[in-house]
Structure formats: C-alpha cells, structure tokens
Design goal:
RNA helicase activity; alpha/beta; 856 residues; 7-stranded mixed β-sheet; 44% helix; CRISPR-assoc_Cas3_HD_sf; antiviral defense; globular; Rossmann fold; 25 strands; Hypothetical protein af1432; RNA binding; 4 domains
C-alpha cells in the first residue's frame, strides 16, 4: 500500500498512507485543542471521548480509500506502471473517476467479504453511513453503490488494488480501534455526527498543503510518521486561525467594562450557561447585539462553543455590524486576526490569501478534485471562508446554505456554524420560505451541539412557538412580558423579564398620515421636507421601491441646496460599501447638526445605527414600520426646535369600499407585491388611523400581536379574510418547498447564482455587471479587466462589481442576454455617468445614485 501515491506533481510523490495520516494529524490536533468539537462528536455518538476519537480518526484516515484504484493511480502513469509492475492498457479512463464516490462504492461492495465478516447487515449500513460522510470531502455525500469496475484491466491489477484497500483498513483498525477496545460491531447505531463531513473536508484541505506537509518517501512506521506530523498540523491550525484561544470569562462586565448594562443586558447573568436556543425581544436600539455577544462569550468561556457566526438580513447590515464586533473581539479571543466579514473588502488571514494565490498558478495531476485546489476555490469567496473564522459576520442567506443539502460543500458551512454560537439578527424579517430553511438550521445546530441566539424587536407568539419546536421543545409559550428573553434548553423553556422598566428607554412617536389615491408624495409635501432640512432636521424617507427612492431623491435635490443623500440596493457592491459608510457618517450619533435628507429603501430599516429627527415611511407591515421608527431619536442629542419629539409620517392609500369588496390587492399596488400579506397591511393602516401617537416599548407587544392575530377582527372585511386564507395556504406550501430542499440529494455547484436561487422564493434579482468595452475586451468601470468566465478564483471580483435588478419584463427586454447568469451591461462614459441606451430611454450608472432608468 505504500507504493500507491496520494499526492504527486510531475517530479515527486507522497505515499497515500502518509497523506492520509497528514490529514489525521490535523484532525487529531484540532480535536485536542477544541473542547467544543470533542463535546459535539461525543454527544452525538453517545460514547466516551476516547471511543468517539477512535471512530472519527479511523474514518478520516479512510477518506481517500478510492485512491487505491488503478483509475486514480494512472493519473501519474510512470508511478502506476512502476507500482503494478506491468504495462497498463491505454484505454483506462481517468477523467471521470472521482475517488470519493468510487471509494464509497468499494467500501460497500467489498465490506462483507473483506472487512466486516462478523458484522450483521444493519451494522454494516451504519459503518457505510459513517464512511459516506468522509468520502464526500470533495463536495457531495455519495449514495450510489452501483458497481463501476475498471474495464479492460487485468485481474492481477484489480486484485492488487483490493488487497491494498483491505490492508489499509486492517492497519487503521490496529492503530485506532483496537487501542480503544472497540471493533467494527461496536459502531454506534445512529447517524454519523453532523460535523464529520465538514471536519474531514477542512482537515483534508490543510493536510494537503505542502507548506506544512512536504512529500516524503516511506522511512518509518505509520505511528512514528503520524507523531512526527503533529507539530506541523498544530502550526497549520494556528496559522489559519482555526484554533480559538478564549481570553474571557464572559458576560457583560467582561466585554463592556466601562458600560452600565441596560434593558435585557441586565438579564444575561440569570441565564443558565448551557447549550440553548435564546430569543431576545427588546426595543430597537436597546443593546440586543451586546446582550447576545455577552451570552455567547459565556458559552465560549465554558468550552461550549469555538466561534461566533453573526448573521444579518443584508450585506449592508453585515458591514455595519463588523465594526461593533471588532471592538470586543480582542476581549473574547486572544487574537482577532481571523474575524471575517462575508463578502466585504476587509483582508482575511494572510495564509488563506497565500494558499489561494498558490493554487491559482498551479496545476495538479488531480485537476479540480485536488484538495488544495478545492480549498483555494472555496476560500477565494469571502462569503464562504467567513465560516472558518473565529467571528464570522455574514448574511442570513449564507447561513441558510448550511442546511441546503443539494449544494456542494454545504457541510463545510454547517461545520463552521455547528461548533459555535449562531446569532441571527432581525429574525422577524424573513418570509415563510426562508423560515422553512431557518428551522432546519436551528434543528441541525442543536444536533451538532451548538447554540442559537435570535434577536428581534418582537415576535408574534406563534413564531416563537415555531422556532422552539424546531429546537425540539414543545412547551407552550404564553409569556406576555416585554422586553423578554426566552431560553430553550434540551427539553424545557424558561422566560426572563425585567422586574422594572427603570433601564428601558421609553419613547412616544407622533403619528401623521399622508393619504393619497396612489401612495405618492406631493410637491407640497416635498417642500415641507425641504423646509425641515433647512431648519436643521435630519429627515429620513423610506421607500419600498428603488425607483421611487431615485425619483424622490432627484426631485428633492432640484428643490434645495441642502444635501440630499440616497441609499438603496442597486449599486455595484464595491460602491455600495462607500455609500453605506457615508450614510453612517452623516446620520450617526456623532454626525454634524446640519440638516440633511436621506432617501432610502428597506436597507436602512435594519441594524444600521443611524438617527433621524423626522421620518417619512411608505406603508408596510407594522413590525417593519416599528423597525423604521427605531431610527427616530435613536440617541440622546440636540434636536431642532420643531422636532424635539420624534415624528413619523406614513404614506398610505385612500381606501374605498368598492376596492375592499372587489380587489383588496389593488389598494396597495406594488407595495402589496413586496409584502404580499394584504390583511397585515390593512390592519396596520387601520391601527395607525386610530392613533395619533405610538408609545414604545408597550406597542411592540400590543400592536404587533393584534395585527398578526390569527382570528378575524370584528370589523374586518370578509374579502380580506378570504384573501388571507389564500395567503396562508401559499405560505404553507412555500415553507414545505424549502424544507424539501434541506432533505434533497440532487447536487448543485456552490455558485452565487445557485446559492441565491435556493435561499429565496420566486424570481430572484438579475445580476448585472456594468462594463466598458474596447476592441471586444471587457473592463469593469474602474478599468480592471473582467476575468474569464471559467476563472474560479476571481468570482469574488465579479461579485464586487455586480448589482441586482428586478426580474421583470422591462429589465429582461433591456439587458443583454446573460452569460453564466450574469448580464454584462456595456456602458459608455459620459458627463452624466456611464450610459446604456435602449429604445425609449437609457440606463445611467453613477456611484452616487446607482443604476437608474431615464426616459428620453
């Protein structure tokens, strides 16, 4: 078996048993230095740490069993010829031989005759399931056991391969299982540990890195070789920032020593420190983020987690969160070098970067299926490598991908999340389709031994019940207190409420309604907005549509010299980062007192620490409206005379009885297409019309529960009730469609397009990349050449220069045909900006306004 190569280049090679032990050395050292990983695996197997270790190392050492096959070995013809001591037929196909899948077939086909003679059929199936997890290290867990014997190959060759496989398994049995006092019949009769596939993949990636594991020929026993590689493995794990060195005892005081806890932060020390699902409900701006980090740090300090994954609704909110996390990272971990923002400009670990650059330039005998190449391709996207950080800041979509089994390497994400604490902000902001996947994420997080913290201003009781059911507890939740922390442990639920409101910031928001037939803002109202800004007010306008935001920003800028800013989602990502920073600078607690106007979309309603004196919002569901109101008077600061009290103006439609009877959807137009739940929009408007002020925090529980109540209101039109029944049926179907994705076994490549299509329902945005062309050569707007479509390592560059537009008839008719799901929009530089002409108008891109439609 030492004559079989596991790694090779054109000049040298590395024996397969040695490569396998390189990977085991990484797993061994990670296991030794991570109590959370040890606990996770042992908790799932139900065995002692010693026996669990034996099984895990045994199977990880077997991960490349499929390389003991002539179809793999012939990828290096000279070595193969020397090994088999015979000439090999030229017709042996190597291109379609995938050693992970084929190794699984050999394990199944040969098991009863060669390896597990005394093991009954049921135990064999469990052994095979464990092996499938490690055999999937190239992206997909194998299930196909249909024989695929090498054709036209002499029996002496296949017999030699079979003997090598048998010898290897018996050798690993001697090294790992026998010292633990177990045999094959002792395999746990349950599914393999959830984290095994991801753990094996990352260990294989590191164990394939020649900077740490150089090629060697057989000089010593396997045991001695293994011991000699432990130091290399430990150095690799430390260099890549994969070992967490906790530097805190955890809690609010440890993380924020100069700060007096408020609101739910005062409850953190009352929570039991154990694997949990935590739901924190508290008013906007009350410090839920700090509370969640304080509890997460307690779990880390108790060795119940290795890392923190912080997920937010959008890229913009993820960017804004990074700075807040960096401020405390050094108090949680001894080093904060491996805090990674998913899809951001922040440089990541230098060793990651060097590995990526190395494999961009190298070609392996194994091609795309060489572990180092797959690792580098995976790491080249910060959206993915974030999950290998000590603190990952990412979007909720990326977290959802960890539970979508059709996606290649989904289990690397689930490994990164499962060994840590998952924090999801704005948990109320997701639809039924997304909840179907998020509930699967919560379920697998519990199975893996990790914890989950969910943050929201408030959640309807039925949603809290659903989330707790996903965790595995069916305790009835009827606590009405607010603010509130709910802790679901193994099989029970505990709630924690404040005894007094002394540390809760109360706020009363004055309500004003602008009613129109078409939900628009009039010229007179725009003049009033301008006047407020001229008097020193910071005015925020939240539109539901990008086109509306661009329209009103343009009109307002023509009416005043006061700065009019705009922020939405239709920017290239690299420009959006700069826009976001400008918004935070101009509307934060420390910004100047000069009046300004910000016209934005939903991107400014969540997790951005910005502050307005007056807000105008278009109609939306009550919980999202409250999120928007959370940007009003967020901080204690000097206000203009007319805006000493927070005021929110809501643009709503006139409603007549005929519309309610005939077609309720028509009342809210495009706004209904966005939010879908017509009854919730109508109920929100009805309550707004009954109140000239809303008092927080009482309104969070009271009004939201009323709007989302299942029972029909007495004064509710029957047409709305019927429409809501149809809506709930569609939501139920959406949820089960998404749940099906978490159980499917058809695989998709982990591309940006597929990833987006899997985590969102219905038509997704079209991905547009504005470019310039010179002689048929495409460049991004800043002059950088566009990478070739098959360049796997520069996909991040494409993402940085892309933007999204609705998948509508208009955009489909205007945009060029897509290439690999990307629409390259060839634009010409003009005095206005970059321009693309079409019949009836043109598209204009500027770094200030984004991509906008202009009619001729």
């Amino acid at each position: 078996m030492y004559n079989y190569w596991g790694k090779a280049d054109e000049l040298s090679w590395h024996p397969l048993p040695y490569h396998s032990m390189d990977v085991v050395a990484v797993a061994d050292q990670w296991w030794a230095h991570s109590p959370a990983i040890r606990r996770s695996f042992s908790q799932e197997t139900g065995l002692s740490e010693e026996q669990t270790y034996a099984w895990v190392m045994f199977f990880i050492a077997l991960h490349d069993l499929g390389k003991f096959d002539v179809r793999f070995q012939i990828k290096n013809l000279n070595l193969a010829t020397e090994n088999y001591k015979t000439s090999l037929p030229a017709g042996i196909r190597t291109k379609d031989y995938f050693h992970g899948d084929e190794g699984y077939k050999w394990f199944v086909l040969e098991s009863e005759d060669l390896y597990f003679i005394d093991v009954d059929y049921k135990k064999q199936r469990w052994l095979q399931n464990w092996f499938a997890s490690v055999a999937g290290h190239h992206g997909s867990i194998p299930t196909n056991t249909e024989p695929n014997l090498p054709p036209f190959v002499d029996e002496s060759i296949t017999s030699k391969d079979c003997l090598a496989r048998q010898s290897w398994i018996q050798e690993l049995n001697r090294i790992f299982l026998e010292p633990a006092g177990i045999t094959f019949v002792d395999i746990p009769t349950k599914n393999p540990p959830l984290l095994l596939a991801g753990f094996c993949s990352v260990c294989d990636w590191l164990g394939s890195n020649r900077e740490y594991f150089d090629f060697q020929q057989k000089e010593s026993s396997l045991e001695k070789y293994f011991l000699s590689r432990e130091r290399n493995a430990l150095k690799a794990l430390n260099d890549f920032g994969l070992l967490s060195h906790i530097a805190t005892i955890g809690g609010m005081e440890a993380l924020y020593p100069d700060y007096t806890p408020q609101n739910t932060q005062t409850l953190i020390d009352r929570l039991s420190v154990e694997q949990s699902l935590i739901i924190i409900e508290a008013n906007t701006g009350s410090g839920k983020t700090e509370a969640s980090l304080a509890y997460a740090s307690k779990l880390l300090a108790a060795s119940l987690a290795d890392n923190i994954v912080f997920a937010l609704p959008t890229q913009a909110t993820a960017n804004a969160m990074l700075e807040r996390l960096e401020a405390v990272a050094g108090r949680i971990f001894e080093s904060n070098d491996n805090i990674i923002l998913a899809h951001g400009k922040r440089d990541s670990n230098k060793h990651f970067k060097r590995m990526i650059e190395k494999h961009k330039q190298s070609i392996s005998l194994q091609g795309d299926f060489e572990a180092g190449a797959q690792c580098s391709e995976w790491l080249s996207s910060s959206r993915k490598r974030a999950f290998l950080g000590q603190i990952a800041v990412t979007t909720v979509d990326q977290v959802m991908l960890s539970a979508i089994r059709p996606l290649r390497h989904y289990f690397v994400r689930s490994f990164g999340i499962g060994k840590g604490v998952l924090i999801i902000d704005e948990i109320h902001a997701y639809d039924a389709y997304m909840y179907g996947i998020l509930e699967a994420v919560i379920k697998q997080q519990k199975q893996a031994g990790g914890s989950v913290i969910l943050l929201s201003a408030t959640l309807p009781a039925y949603q809290k019940q659903s989330l707790c059911s996903a965790w595995g507890t069916d305790a009835v939740i009827n606590e009405k207190g607010y603010p509130l922390i709910l802790q679901a442990t193994d099989d029970d639920v505990h709630t924690f409420a404040l005894e007094t409101w002394d540390c809760v910031q109360e706020k009363t928001v004055e309500i004003e309604l602008w009613k129109t037939n078409d939900c628009s803002i009039s010229v007179e109202q725009l003049k009033r907005i301008v006047k407020a800004a001229q008097e020193g007010a910071k005015v925020g306008i939240v539109c539901n549509l990008v086109d509306d935001a661009q329209k009103y920003a343009h009109r307002l800028s023509e009416m005043t010299s006061v700065p009019v800013d705009i922020f939405h989602s239709r920017y290239r990502y690299c420009d959006r980062m700069n826009k976001e920073k400008a918004v935070l600078d101009n509307y934060s607690k420390k910004s100047s007192d000069r009046g300004r106007i910000l016209v934005g979309t939903q991107v400014i309603e969540q997790s951005l620490d910005i502050d307005f004196d007056w807000m105008i919002s278009f109609v939306c569901p009550v919980d999202l409206l409250f999120q928007r109101m959370g940007r009003l008077h967020r901080h204690l600061k000097q206000r203009p005379e007319s805006y000493k009290k927070p005021r929110c103006t809501i643009v709503i439609p006139n409603i007549n009885d005929a519309d309610l009877t005939e077609d309720p959807k028509k009342i809210y137009g495009f706004h209904n297409l966005i939010y879908k739940n017509t009854r919730v929009l109508w109920r929100t408007q009805y309550l707004l019309e009954q109140n000239n002020a809303i008092k927080f925090p009482e309104a969070y529980r009271d009004l939201i529960e009323r709007v989302y109540a299942k029972d029909r209101w007495e004064n509710e039109p029957e047409s709305l009730t019927k429409l809501h029944e149809e809506y709930e049926t569609e939501e139920w179907a959406s949820k089960w469609i998404s749940k099906g994705l978490t159980q499917a076994d058809t695989y998709f490549m982990d591309s940006e397009g597929n990833a987006n299509a899997l985590t969102r329902e219905g038509k997704m945005n079209l991905s547009v990349i504005p470019v310039t062309e010179d002689g048929g050569v495409k460049h991004f707007l800043d002059g950088i050449p566009v990478p070739k479509p098959n360049d796997k390592f520069d996909r991040e560059l494409l993402s940085q220069n892309s933007l999204g537009v609705p998948d509508s008839n208009f955009w489909r008719s205007v945009l060029p045909k897509s290439q690999d799901r990307l629409h390259y929009l060839s634009m010409v530089k003009t005095n206005e900006g970059w321009r693309f002409d079409y019949d009836g108008g043109y598209l204009l891109y500027t770094q200030d306004r984004g991509l906008q439609k202009v009619k001729k």
